[in-house]
Design brief:
Layout (H helix, E strand, L loop, with lengths): L16 H13 L18 E10 L5 E12 L5 E2 L2 E4 L4 H17 L6 E7 L7 H15 L8 E2 L8 H15 L20 H19 L8 E5 L5 H10 L3 E6 L4 E3 L6 H11 L9 E3 L12 E4 L18 E3 L8 H10 L2 E3 L1 H4 L2 H15 L5 H26 L3 H20 L4
Parallel strand pairs: 3-6, 4-5, 7-8, 7-11, 11-12, 12-13
Antiparallel strand pairs: 1-2, 2-5, 8-9, 9-10
Bound molecules: glutamic acid.
Amino acid sequence: MSTQHEIPSYLTPHEIGPWGVYLEQIDRVTPHLGSLARWVETLKRPKRILVVDVPIERDDGTIAHFEGYRVQHNTSRGPGKGGVRFHQDVTLSEVMALAAWMTIKNAAVNVPYGGAKGGIRVNPKLLSEGELMRMTRRYTSEINIIIGPTKDIPAPDVNTNEKVMAWMMDTYSMNQGSTASGVVTGKPISLGGSLGRHEATGRGVFVVGCEAAAKRGLDIRGARVAVQGFGNVGGIAARLFAEAGARIVAVQDHVATLVREGGIDIPALQAHSSAHGSIEGFSGADALKERSQFWEVDCDIMVPAALEQQITADNANRIRASIILEGANGPTTPAADDILHDKGVLIVPDVIANAGGVTVSYFEWVQDFSSFFWTEEEINLRLTRIMREAFAAIWQLAEEKQVSLRTAAFIVACTRVLRAREMRGLYP
Ligand code: GLU
């Protein structure tokens, strides 16, 4: 990292991790913020951090404790908003960065939210359904003091889904004494969820992917796409690209890496993955032994849609794609960003590329408040329009200022957040 950052006392130096990446991104945008730079320190400090103990009784009668977090990074433009992640590698640094990226993302696509994120350090695949439910309910009760439909609205993220959202909504509602459907988004449709929400993040990736391809004169029909992550984001983006005539030449999940020059049959791979919990063992493609070989696959579009810090100075030079669509949050380190930029690779940053999920979360929240539900067609049309407009605005600014799309997106977003900060003024 080029600059020395003040490390908060609650993070040990080796834990700076993704939060350090985020701080570096803020440093890069600061010279472009004019007089608003006066407020930039606001963005370098989360507003509120809650660390909770989540004890549960295991099925065998023993007691297990998990560490849970909810970080509200900024609420200048509206309530906190962002997902909840269950993963064995979750750290406070990671949740802080993810919360901050939500602030930037929500401002970049102009939905009226601040940024927040939560997580539990747990491998949910090792829990039974009952244990998962007890853990989710206890976590929700512990963070109950800071969440709510007008305060902070959780949603799904890595390893959480509609079922987890239903338990969170129920737990919060039981604590309140009345049903509060707007406390979480990404709920089942029958509990006030929105049509199109499940697919929204992947659809958003696809929409900005088409825009980026058009700018580069690349025809989506026949384009070769490689996808890292085959969950809610990567799996759906892969399907939409395939339906549009692209060839999905590589897919990697947490277990295996598959390649097929002629294109992988995505519906068949999805069926295999749902049945076996992974893409491993799928007969319709060849498996690569070395995970790192994924980065060398000959392709036009690469979609990192798994976890943070995947594209680093170590593998950036091996990437052959001309377009990278960041389906994951924070998949590219600043050093890798520079290498790819010098190679002329077009990176559509996470804060735009994966903003489709929170955009439809916003639609869901609005529908819950008004108890009036929209058609899927209406939702997809509005989503597509917001994604295209956000992409176009950021593209134009990047051209004007001769900066990357990431810096342009951060300029737009930080300006919105800090303008709100300035107009509200400091309390008291
Ligand atoms: N977890 C998703 C994200 O990282 C969605 C957040 C939301 O809908 O609040 O953008």
